[in-house]
Amino acid sequence: MKKIPLFPYSNHILPDGRTQLKIAQARHIRMVKEALISKKGFVMAMIDSEREHSEVKDVPAISTHVKVIDFNRLEGDLLGITVEGIDLLKIEQIRIEDDKLLIAECMPFSTWAPSQTTTSNQCLAQRLKQLYSSQPEMGNLYPTPLFDDMTWVCQRWLEVLPIEVKYKQMLIHQKNAQPGHSFFNQVTSR
Prior knowledge:
Helix content: 25-40%
Largest sheet: 5 strands, mixed, barrel
Strand content: 25-35%
Number of helices: 6
Strand order of the largest sheet: 1-3-4-5-6
Shape: globular
Structural class: alpha+beta
C-alpha cells in the first residue's frame, strides 16, 4: 500500500490531464516541496466545489496520483504549480498529520485503456478542440493533445464538465470510456 499526501480540491484531473493550482497554505507548500524532492507526487481528490471545506470522510475513494511539471512564485506568497495526472488510486485510509496535511494510504486502481477515435466518434474530439480554441488557457496546457484517443478525449470532458462528483466517480468506475463517450456526446451536442 502506498502512503502519499492528499490534496482535496474542486478542480478535477484524471490520468494525462493537466491543471494549474495556486497553493497558499503552509501544509500544502510542504506537500509540493516534498513531491518535488521525492519525485513521488501527491494525490488529488475531486471534491464538490460547494463542499470544499467538508470533512475528510467526504473525499471520494478514487483519486488521481499527480506529479508537478512546473511551478513558480506568485504574488502574496502563493505558489503556482502545474500538475499532470499519472494514474488512479483507490484511497483506503486517511490520516491527518500535526500540520493538518492529509496522508492517504492508497492502492492502484485500473485506468481506462487507450481507444482509437473512429469516424463515428470524432464529433466529441472536434468539440473538445473547439473548447480548447475558445479557452486557450486550458488548451495551452496540452502542447501535444491526443484527440485521436477517445479515452483521452473522454477524460478531458470528465474533468471540465460541471457534473456532480458522484456521477464523475460512477463514470470512472466503468471498465472503459464507452459509457462516458455516450454520455458526453449527448451533453456536448446540446
